[in-house]
Amino acid sequence: MAKHSHDVIIVGGGAGGLTAAVGCAQLGMKTALIDKERLGGDCLHYGCVPSKSLLKAASVYRSMADAGRYGLPSVEPPPVDLSAVNARVAKVIAAIEVHDSPQRFRSLGAEVFLGRAEFSSPHEVVIDGETRLSAPSVILATGSSPRAIPFEGIEEAGYITNVDAFSLPALPRRIATIGAGPIGVELSQAYRRLGAEVTILDLAPQVLPREDPDMAAFVEERLTAEGVSLRLGSTVARVERSGSVKKIHVTRSDGVDEVLEVDEILMAVGRQGNTSGLALENAGVTVEKSFVVADAKLRTSQRHILAVGDVNGRYQFTHVAGAEGSLAVRRIALHAGGTMDYRAVPWCTYTDPELASVGYNEASAKAAGIDYDTIVQPFGSTDRAQAEGEPAGRMKILLDRKGRVIGTQIAGYHAGELLVPSLFAVGKRWKAGAIMGPIYPYPTLSELHRKAVSTRMAPRLFNNRVRRLLRLLFRYRGTAGTTEA
Asked: Is residue 484 in a domain?
């Protein structure tokens, strides 16, 4: 009789768990994939997919009203029916959900179990108190969920999170968003563009506190220009409800007390790991502040149990969860080892303008004690940005002492798509000049990379010293540079 029922058990059916399940099953491992409700994870149902669908709808609606900017007839669009917008969001989710269906993963060789998983020992998992599975290797991929700050009166007043945002029956007239991180600013801009009055509250002095202030400023300026009210550097004292109105008592950065009256509160203050209810103490897995403690090899305090995705608390991005899931396959199915390299993790906030980053920014480079230099290029220096009517923003490239690219930030139109060359530059430690190698098609936004590096390199080539040398060698007769500044 076999000692274990499976070769590997994967708990959690989000991006990391699904990636691991496909890899392990297709490499011949008897794979058990467990999720408490449905596959796809927070990204598909409450995160990346619905939020980008909502942002697109809000962008189109704003473009209707903004047609005059492009020399077109101005249009006064009718009020938004949020239920219709969310119906379209649901269709997008349904179209993508097919790829994450239990049937598909069963067809690929994984056994899929829907139910609540609890550990009874380091190698055993019980589903809904009935079905017992065991395996020599286990992957934790249970993700994260919205965190809430227990302000006085907040539970009585009520609030929504990203879990509720895509099922609202109607657009609230006034919304207060608590939290100026990516989720908060994305949804706030979408709601504002759809017609709501929106206020963002945060203790931080800027929106997107993780980003350099000069880059986040482009997002902040656009939010303000579109009518989003910002209460940065502010604290929430308490919340109370009066009928259908929610009153938020705020102390602003200037020390003035203020009461905001809103119809809905969006809580967007961060995430917590989904570790409650798993009985991880029975497995001997260490948990700190709701997240599973894991090293760069994804190993928990139990070496045979790996943690991938949000639940390990490192980078809460779908693409990182997928990469960690792939590494878990390599380590478990192929016994090939491997370590995550988090130095080149990219991320993007999908506001308008977008703000995309990879590697070090100035804040993190300073914190790490790294000497760096910067290349800064205005977004509007590309002809395509001007043609699109989107000149706002900039690219900033960080170089180390040897001239290697260690980080890039782009604030601007389609910044996330434009980040790709820097993924290679940072990951492969290219020098800045390597970015100029390709011939970039014209007119494209991607020319921003060539222009940025060209701006830096031009003074090294086009200067009086070089001109004097070339005149001496080749008897050139041009007059450029003959007058010393």
From this structure: no
